[in-house]
Amino acid sequence: MSTIFEKIIAREIPAHIVYEDELVISFLDISQATEGHTLVVPKKAYATIFEIPDDLLAHTIKIVKKISNACQKAFHVEGLNILSNNGTIAGQTVFHFHFHVIPRFSDQDVIFKMSNRMNEVTTDTYKKRALLIKEAL
Ligand code: AMP
After folding, report:
1. Which candidate in 19, 42, 44, 81 could, as Cys together with 102 as Cys, close a disulfide (CB 3.0–4.6 Å)?
2. Most distant CA atoms of the chain, gap in Å
3. For residues 40 and 65, is the Cβ–Cβ distance under 8 A?
4. Ligand 1 atom with minimal separation from the 15 CA
5. Tens-place pLDDT, residues 54-85
6. What is the reported pTM?
């Protein structure tokens, strides 16, 4: 079954496309979290970052920068968020890997709840967590 983004790529359903090349497409997110909220999507569907090949990811992030620069210019914003949800637990709803580019007009227009747990984590815990990641590389 094809993803909704594959349907956009195939022009089976409409979208407000802002950029396209042989590997990547970029169009407005239908939900517009903020003015200009744009998605950058590799044309070949990989569900998450765990599957996408490095070279395609590298090209995709280059286009994320291009779209970010365009959004900065178009909407006169000083900042934006670049976001990729991977997996249901992380809030992913379309299982076709993509980046969100979300221009920010105030510090209240999008609420990301990332708790600061600095005071809860001991030096030993940091060390153990870093070691787990290093060993997995
Ligand atoms: P995520 O939840 O990170 O997987 O993001 C999927 C995004 O795709 C959501 O922000 C949706 O609003 C957006 N979306 C779903 N359907 C469409 C569509 N037909 N055109 C544009 N954006 C869409």
Report:
1. 81
2. 54
3. no
4. 20
5. 999 999 999 999 999 999 999 999 899 999 99
6. 0.96
Q: Which run of H or of E encompasses 54?
A: helix 54-75
Question: CB under 6 Å to ligand 1: residues?
Answer: 4, 13, 15, 29-31, 85, 91-94
Cβ atoms of 100 and 32 closer than 8 Å: no
Contacting residues for 114 by C-beta, under 8 A, at least 6 apart: none
Distance CA 98, CA 67 (A): 13
Q: Please give the structure tokens belonging to residue 61.
A: 């992030």
Neighbours of 31 (CB within 10 A): 7
CA of 92 to the centre of ligand 1 (A): 9
